Amino acid sequence: MTTQSSKKYRRLMEKAKELFFTQGYKRVTMDEIAAEAGISKMTIYKYFSSKEDLLLEVIIQWSDQILSIIHADLDKIPTAVEKIEYMFSFGASVSKEMPFVLYKDIMESPYIIARLGEYKKKEVLVLWKNILEEGVNKGEMRPMDVDFVSHFLSDLTENIDWQRIFANPYYLNEEKGVSWLVENIYDFFKYGLLGRGKG
């Protein structure tokens, strides 16, 4: 990309994220994004074939920033057990950053869910594998099939039928917010039925 092209692209991504994160996906048009970014709609289509692809890239770039934070934080955490606790609590806190309306719109797009699932599985699998290997090697965790357990933990969240959950008004409660749902899911993952839980 030329310098001018790079500037246009950065402005496009900034404004697209701003609009998606304040209004959701469905309420925003490509015309609005182009106007906010100060570029033509044709310029957007040079980079992205559809609004779905634009949203997907916005979410992936946002996720990349979050992963950078996670990697930096994990480097400072001394034990594998503390790292696992961090992974669950950080996931719950990040869920508060994305507005309810955008979560809802994403859950209604099988294409975006499938593509995000591929991206997240690849990235999250490496994180789990590193943490579990460290825990076993340091004697903080019992010996286990690290490859199996890391795949299982990674798949656990990916194999949830999120569309079905978000179609249920009990789970998709705007008053309680998405973080309420995520915190309860993570609490169950961590402690199951008989663990100490959050109380």
Automatic annotation (TrEMBL):
Origin species: Anaerosolibacter carboniphilus
Pfam families found in the cross-reference section: TetR_N
Matching SUPFAM superfamilies: Homeodomain-like (SSF46689), Tetracyclin repressor-like, C-terminal domain (SSF48498)
DNA-binding region, residue range(s): 29-48
InterPro entries per record: Homeodomain-like_sf, HTH-type_Tx_Regulator, HTH_TetR, Tet_transcr_reg_TetR-rel_C_sf
Keyword check for Ribonucleoprotein: no
Protein name, UniProt field: AcrR family transcriptional regulator
Ranges for domain HTH tetR-type: 6-66
Database matches in PROSITE patterns: HTH_TETR_2
